[in-house]
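Dear colleagues,

As part of the handover before I leave the project, I'm documenting each prediction I ran so the next person doesn't have to rerun anything. This entry is a single chain, and its sequence is reproduced below.
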Amino acid sequence: MPKKLPPIPDEKQLKLRKTLSTLGLLKIVRNELKEIPDHRRGKIDYILPNVLMSSLAMFALKYPSLLQFDKARHEKTVKANLKNLYGVKKAPCDTQMREILDPINPNELRPAFTSLHRQLQRQKVLESYQYLGGNLVSFDGTGQFSSNNLACKDCCRKNLRNGKKQYYHQERSAVIISPHKSNVLPLFSEAITHQDGESKNDGERNASKRLLPAKVTLFPN
């Protein structure tokens, strides 16, 4: 006997899929990134939303480094993805991307996360993640960068037994979880960095204290 076909989804289901499609979600992100003020003056070759969306594409397309992304950005398939999905006609090189993005405060990216999750809230996706009357949030620390030679003012520092110093970046990340779901919903994170005026390194506990108030106000209703 032929296999029974699945039922045809109703119009509301199709609308939900369109709103939460990759293209739809990226459009929400780009609209929020347009609101971030550009710190540059004079002639600008790459507008800030394009640079930010290019960096997002680098992570989403799973390139291991800026250099690898730089080498691939002129390939036909990559160019098509950048244009059609991310709205970027021409991506900057790795050096330009670093110079443009370094001065941006990561907190300015948080409205993009908020808009995405409010969309999930409107479409009842967050409701499906509820457990015991609310949403469960899991926190964890993760490393981003470590070097014995390269450092910046925000790096945490560790004195090694061989007398050298190790410089590193970490962050405190959070995700919405449910025991009934195999996928998690990432929330914005808080950097674990060397704090101004402090002699000791920052830590996960301090980062959590800075992060929790922001989580509480994420969904005020």
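The chain has nine helices and five strands. The chain has two domains: 16-35+46-104, 129-216.

All the best with the project,
I.
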